[in-house]
Amino acid sequence: MPKVIVIGSANVDLTIQVDRLPTPGETVSDGRFYTSFGGKGANQAVAALRAGAQVRFLAKVGRDPNGDRILEQLEAQGLHTDLILRDETEPSGVALIMVDCNGRNAIAVAPGSNRKITPEDIRRFEPLKGWGETLLLQLEVPLDAVKEALTLARMQGLRTILNPAPARTLDEGVLAQVDLLTPNEGELERLSGSPVKEEKTAVEACKILLDQGVGEVIVTLGEHGALHVTRKGAELFPGYPVKAVDTTAAGDAFNGALACGLAEGRPMEDAIRFANAAGALTVTRRGAQDALPSRDEIENLLQRLDEDTP
Fold first, then answer.
1. Over the stretch 40-52, which tens digit does the pLDDT of each residue have?
2. Which residues, other chains included, contact 124 with Cβ-Cβ below 8 Å and sequence gap of 6+?
3. Which residues are catalytic?
């Protein structure tokens, strides 16, 4: 079974489903409220697990009721929680999410204990040494912890995948340790400093990052699929047509399934198609972790698509 290490955030998500997203200063009524669990790290860990990987997840939650709930949720999903730390000073992370009738969302996050992960926390976990094929990271935890994780992963021979979300500027010292970078269009524009308007400009922006040391780039394009760019060229992998209900965890589903596919030795092309299918299934359901598909669901969608292809 493929082995994936995920280091990142874990949150409680408070979501309101509304007909349309409000403009600044406007109140939109008649919404429907529900509580779920998220955080890019936790979402991607659960996504990789459901896609078929063994997963070890390192995160930090508060010593509060929300922290207890997050631990219970992760255990219920089948994740080991021996690497989940408790912070004594900060509450657990919380995300406030609004989702409209077309599945578009607006999200505000209070990171809380997620911002308390330190390089020392990364270094202290002996269980991660010599374990796994792939390390998957995001940017909802402090950058110095991300840098430490990348450094240790390189020393251990792990493939490193960085989902640079939320967007921030990264120096070449960080980028040079990333085997595979997975930004969306906005994150790609922020990282490269180059406008991204269509496929051609996306490829040009990716080449800037390749010149800064990144091994490969996959740009997630929502319903349009994913663009894979290397020093040898670029290839677009079209998305799969589905009715979007909630796009909240689509990128996390993609990254978790991609990490699983690569860890089990799939060729990059197959891993991207596998990840595209996971993302497509996720947007057909509400919530974050509750929406993430199983391996059987992903494989069944791919099989149906293959059968429908002339």
1. 999 999 999 999 9
2. none
3. 252
